[in-house]
Amino acid sequence: MIVRKERPHPGAQLRFTDHDGLRLTAFATNTVRGQLATLELHHRRRARCEDRIRTAKDCGLTNLPLHGFDANRIWCAIVMLASELIAWTHMLAFTHHPARRWEPKRLRHRLFTIAAKISRHARRTRLKLAAHAPHVDLLLDGIARLAALPAPT
Length: 153
Fold this sequence. Notes:
Distance between the termini: 46 Å
Structural class: alpha+beta
């Protein structure tokens, strides 16, 4: 069993078991890997997987809204696509910003609800964003960072 004492992440709800603002986390393993750092890395990778599951539930995997099996299979594929888009957006568009850690609900309320209009003129398609939105600069930086990526081959 490995027990760590750590500070909860910013915005975390403190529990009554947290002592002096520090949280004890423990995990038990029967893995024979040798080094403590290797076990810690293995455990953290597992936590990332659980974060992805929570994100999928926030994107609509909590309930299957349709009646037929095939329709719900399509729903699950759409949820999977949305989860992947959010994960890649975190990794590629918001590399050095706290938005990289935002949950889907916060992304929805701050970035995905910015009013926009698609216009076409002179064989060009333009996206006009509302200039008064509070997080429009963050969205523009993310779009510019994604546009600067090399094209996949």
